[in-house]
Amino acid sequence: MNITMIGSGYVGLVSGACFADFGHDVICVDKDERKIASLLDGRMPIFEPGLDHLVSSNVKAGRLGFTTNLTEGVANADVVFIAVGTPSRRGDGHADLSYVYAAAKEIAGAIKGFTVIVNKSTVPVGTGDEVERIIREANPDADFAVVSNPEFLREGAAIDDFKRPDRIVIGSDNPRAIEVMRQVYRALYINKSPLIEMNRRGAELTKYAGNAFLATKITFINEIADLCEKVGADVQDVARGIGLDNRIGSKFLHAGPGYGGSCFPKDTLALLKTSRDYDAPQRIVETVVAVNDNRKRAMGRKIISGMGGEVRGKTVAILGLTFKPNTDDMRDSPAIAIIQALQDAGAIIRAHDPEGMEQAQPLLDNVDYCDNAYATMENADALVIVTEWDAFRALDLDRVKSLLKAPLFFDLRNIYPRNTIEAEGFAYHAVGR
């Protein structure tokens, strides 16, 4: 099957490479000439474990190509995926759909024969209706169907998520289009991945509802963590105690500094905008957004308090900048608000991240970016782990103690046992423990 992916960012590139690996012929289109040139040269525009090998092997096999020419890319396609960005719009938090609509208008003039147009981008309810209208208006004679097929990829585990999905959601009332989508995902039948069919608006809402629910779980356990600190309980014990209930589940019950990334912040805001447009308030999600925003700055205050209430002129070593490990994504990372809170209080910041320092530099001023974890700690007044990279899970604690001015250890991801750190003579500060 001939597949064209409009947009070669995170979702488009991962999806395109995986479809090619299934045996489809895939063309990835992007207007960014530098990005396409890099991809043609074998250089990835994002960090995602295994993606470079997946791309190169399928390019070599002749199943995966890249171009800036949308017309050329779409002309022979059976299926065209729209996988462009939908960032939060300033002012109201609504998803900016200008890239989606611009793609739809260009696609309209390029399709030949029956073509399934698939919204892979995360879009509010009703976007598929508008994409259909735009294409129909631009090309009244076009033979096409618009389908919603939201993505559920976790950064850092995207390839495995794509190839072994919990579910595949197909939103359409067009039997012909549904059959085409079944063929697109036929390679996954061996894994017995449930393919869930519903109408287009239901599929659009499923993506937002799923992310809002996961954001709620994270925010819930973070607030329970605060209570644990007050009453003398350990949030990890509590999380395990409730997570073993199969009605709740253990995933997304890890207390920390708050959620970030490209999905949860953007999608919860977009869901709230949709709820206001349809006069169906989402009070729980409203609270989740507010609590999460406040939590990030609160982590900065937690560090200041643990350092005696005064950090002016003191150096804080920050390990981890990205919103989660195994990605270079800095979008809405808790590290940004934490570092800014410390800087506002007069602290000097040194930081290290295995993949995110280049992306962090435009976002965080006056930070000394270090080549490795231990260089970050040298003569610092405290150590703070913000992102739980594997490289930070087995630090040489004797070396850490010798490098720090004071044995202050802030573990905002709870990756170390308290007794291990305290046995080394550190003052240990965790979350909810």
What can be said about this structure in brief?
The chain is α/β, with parallel strands linked by helices. The chain has helices spanning 10-21, 33-40, 51-60, 70-74, 98-108, 127-138, 158-163, 175-184, 200-231, 235-243, 264-277, 283-306, 334-344, 357-360, 373-377, 397-403, 418-423; strands at residues 2-6, 25-29, 64-67, 79-82, 115-119, 144-148, 168-171, 195-198, 315-319, 348-352, 367-369, 382-385, 408-411, 427-429.
Describe the structure.
Helix 13 links the parallel strand 9 and strand 10. This protein has 433 residues and is an alpha/beta fold. It is built from 17 helices and 14 strands. The protein has a six-stranded parallel sheet with strand order 3-2-1-4-5-6, sandwiched between helices. Helix 5 (98-108) runs parallel beside helix 6 and helix 9 (200-231) crosses helix 11.
List the helices and strands and how they pair.
Blueprint: E1 2-6, H1 10-21, E2 25-29, H2 33-40, H3 51-60, E3 64-67, H4 70-74, E4 79-82, H5 98-108, E5 115-119, H6 127-138, E6 144-148, H7 158-163, E7 168-171, H8 175-184, E8 195-198, H9 200-231, H10 235-243, H11 264-277, H12 283-306, E9 315-319, H13 334-344, E10 348-352, H14 357-360, E11 367-369, H15 373-377, E12 382-385, H16 397-403, E13 408-411, H17 418-423, E14 427-429
Parallel strand pairs: 1-2, 1-4, 2-3, 4-5, 5-6, 7-8, 9-10, 9-12, 10-11, 12-13, 13-14
Strand content: 5-15%
- The Cα radius of gyration reads 23 Å
Percent helix? 40-55%
The H-level CATH homologous superfamily of one domain, spelled out, is NAD(P)-binding Rossmann-like Domain
Q: Mind summarizing the main beta sheet? A: 6 strands, parallel
Q: What does the average pLDDT come to?
A: 96
CATH topology of one domain, which one?
A: Rossmann fold
